[in-house]
Amino acid sequence: EPNIVSKFDYNILVNKHYKLSDDFKVDNLVNIPAKYASSNDQKLNETVLNAFIKMYEKADSDGQSLIINSAYRSHSDQEELYNTYLRLYGEDYAFNYVAKSGHSEHETGLCFDIGSRNSNIFAKSSEYEWMQQNAYKYGFILRFPEWGTDLTQFRSESWHYRYVGVDVATYLHDNIMTYEEYYVRFLQNK
After folding, report:
1. How many Å is the Cα radius of gyration of the chain?
2. Contact by Cβ (8 Å): 67, 52
3. Tens of pLDDT, residues 5-18
4. What's phi and psi for 131, nearest 5 deg?
5. CB 3.0 to 4.6 Å from 72: which of 43, 57, 169, 189, for a disulfide?
6. Burial category of 3 from C-beta neighbours within 10 Å (exposed 0-12, middle 13-18, buried 19 and up)
């Protein structure tokens, strides 16, 4: 039985063991300006968007071209996405590659899937390298790193970034730690 997360907080953990309640509401969900996203209907939490814009501007000045491909998803959008993967690829694939509704960080407004305007394969782009070296300075972490799949229980996603704030992101970066480890060590019993 998963732990239920009912209140919005920048430190929440959402994964296969922590599920958002049916009445979970994202704080301050705002539209992402077209300049930063691949489609016009994207949304993020306002604090996260402001941090992203700062990061985007710095990346841009460094010659990198970032774009948000997917941000907030409603509970029903996530359910539809999961069911599509389930129908197309089967249960094992869907379980390993897509979060069930209620178990996706995309439903929190705290994360986004990022891309490069210069490369179709983000993990091979200069933007990916830039993010590896700089994202934490703006409060973002690579949520599902290759070295952490045993802990996150999701396959590596080079494009999925989560906002945790500069202090936590810096700690995770400096200590090469997944958010799951950090959560258990510092936040679980608060």
Report:
1. 16
2. no
3. 999 999 999 999 99
4. -60, -40
5. 43
6. exposed
pLDDT by residue (tens digit) across 97-118? 889 999 999 999 999 999 999 9
The burial of 68, by beta-carbon neighbours within 10 Å (0-12 exposed, 13-18 middle, 19 or more buried), is given as: buried
Q: Distance between CA 55 and CA 69 in Å, rounded? A: 16
What contacts 148, CB < 8 A, 6 or more positions away?
156, 178, 180
Q: What is the dihedral of CA 165, 175, 121, 75, to 10 degrees?
A: -50
pTM: 0.95
How far apart, in whole angstroms, are the C-alpha atoms of residue 41 and residue 111?
15
Spatial contact of 143 and 152, defined as CB atoms under 8 Å apart: yes
What is the DSSP track for 25-91?
--SSEEEPPGGGBSSTT-EEEHHHHHHHHHHHHHHHHTT--EEEEE----HHHHHHHHHHHHHHH-H
